[in-house]
């Protein structure tokens, strides 16, 4: 049976490190401040924002929530993002996704790029993604950092490891594949148009799945003793949460696996906190 990679326990280590950093900043008279923007009343987004607020409060980061109705205009959202980016008291800015299509249409990338890259704690601006492509350190997307941290908890050295990344989204798949490549893994990116997905995954030492499809990765698709990182989170008809992996059966084949919930989710929030502190230090030349 596979080792369960406890994302909550790993996240607690990261949060503890962040809290210590915030205490040092406060002792020097500083305040770390974070602003989240929520558009509309998506129940899941409201939960995510509350979790982020609670996490900030636990480590001593001042939290601001700015809300706009789902009926707001694109220009209203753009003005708010510009205002927060220009506010010298705010160190991190995050736009909670998804944003209603009625507000942003096909201009989501445009609105994200209005965030000052130095405050982009989600790491999703072109500037920060470009630094990741270049192999330099900017503000790296939180989920990608969480995936790397989870893998390194059981496999510290990724050099030469064959990794299959299932999913190519701007938020998870692409930045994660870049980050793992920067750590010397050999990464294959698969997606909805990939033919014979199982042929790829059976060759992988590590599989990271972020496809948004319950139980997509089954035991017959996994090499014995592979490491499985499940980023997916899906609500089943019975109301329960499930990842993109057939957890019970894959766990019988893999050497280590993340659960859903309790895997990458807590790590994503923890690395958001870390990014806020990194942003503060960069802005204050510390």
Structure in words:
The chain is of the alpha/beta class and 286 residues long. It folds into 2 domains: 30-116, Rossmann fold (3-Layer(aba) Sandwich); 142-265, NAD(P)-binding Rossmann-like Domain (Rossmann fold, 3-Layer(aba) Sandwich). 41% of the residues lie in helices and 15% in strands. It has 11 helices and 11 strands. The protein has helices spanning 7-27, 43-59, 74-86, 101-104, 108-112, 126-133, 142-152, 173-182, 197-201, 247-250, 264-283, and strands at 3-4, 33-39, 62-68, 92-95, 162-166, 186-190, 206-209, 227-230, 234-235, 241-242, 256-257. The strands form 3 sheets. Strands 1-11-8-7-5-6 form a 6-stranded parallel sheet. α2 (43-59) links the parallel β2 and β3. α7 (142-152) packs across α8 (173-182). The longest helix is centred in the first third of the chain and has 21 residues, at 7-27. It is globular, with a radius of gyration of 19 Å.
Name the beta content range. Answer: 15-25%
CATH topology tier name of the largest domain: Rossmann fold
Largest sheet: 6 strands, parallel
Shape: globular
Count of alpha/pi helices:
11
The share of residues in helices is 40-55%
What's the alpha carbon Rg, rounded to whole Å?
A: 19 Å
Structural class: alpha/beta
Query: What is the ordering of alpha helices and beta strands?
Result: EHEHEHEHHHHEHEHEEEEHEH
Cα distance, first to last residue? 45 Å
Q: Any idea what the CATH architecture of the largest domain is?
A: 3-Layer(aba) Sandwich
Strand order of the largest sheet: 1-11-8-7-5-6
Q: CATH homologous superfamily of the largest domain - what is it?
A: NAD(P)-binding Rossmann-like Domain
The parts where pLDDT drops under 50 for at least 5 residues are none
